[in-house]
Amino acid sequence: MRDGKKTVLVINGPNLNLLGTREPQLYGHETLADVENAQKEQAKTLNANVEFFQSNWEGAIVDKIQEARTDGTDGIVLNPGGFTHTSVAIRDALLGVEIPFIELHVANIHAREEWRHHSYFSDKAKAIIVGCGAAGYGYAIEHVVKKFPEKVKP
After folding, report:
1. Which residues form the active site (predicted)?
2. 143 belongs to an annotated ligand binding site
3. Beta bridge mates, 127
4. Which secondary-structure segment (H or E) carries 116?
């Protein structure tokens, strides 16, 4: 909680900076900036704080998750991108900070190649949103704000 408001950290992994231009038949035409702008407006209506972070670097994502441990973050929305199927380091960071999180995928990973069906996060996520396009971000943020408990600072 920051400034008396529930706080949500939205983390986007590799290649999500290309949202809107990379394979729009799968991911849609909305850019990451479009998503961020829409969710900032949504946060106002929910009386919440929302912070966005995107990196193509696994270690930067781990660092951001660790920072969230003490900065008043109540919940994390994670779109791990390609790290979904590979990152034990991000999984361990999430478990280490004990902040509840939602796993999010713009496309339906279960309707794609077999190797994309496995996630290192699904078994620990409080919820999983897949295949809802950019609207999934809004669903995830609303769920965190309305359903997740406030995090008590360590």
Report:
1. 27 (proton acceptor), 105 (proton donor)
2. no
3. 102
4. none
- Per-residue CA distances from 135 to 48, 49, 152 (Å): 18, 18, 29
Tell me whether residue 1 is in a domain. Answer: no
We report the CATH number of the domain holding residue 70 as 3.40.50.9100
Is 116 marked within a binding site? yes
Which are the catalytic amino acids? 27, 105
37 in a known ligand binding site: no
Q: Give CA–CA dist 75/7, Å, rounded.
A: 7
Number of domains in the chain: 1
Annotated ligand binding at 92? The verdict is yes
12-32: pLDDT as tens digits: 999 999 988 876 676 668 899
Whether residue 152 lies inside any domain: the answer is no
CA 129, distance to chain mean position in Å, is 10
Q: Kindly report the length of the chain.
A: 154
Q: How many CB atoms lie within 10 A of CB 143?
A: 17
Host domain of residue 135:
6-147
CA distance 127 to 144: 10
User: Is 42 domain-assigned?
Assistant: yes
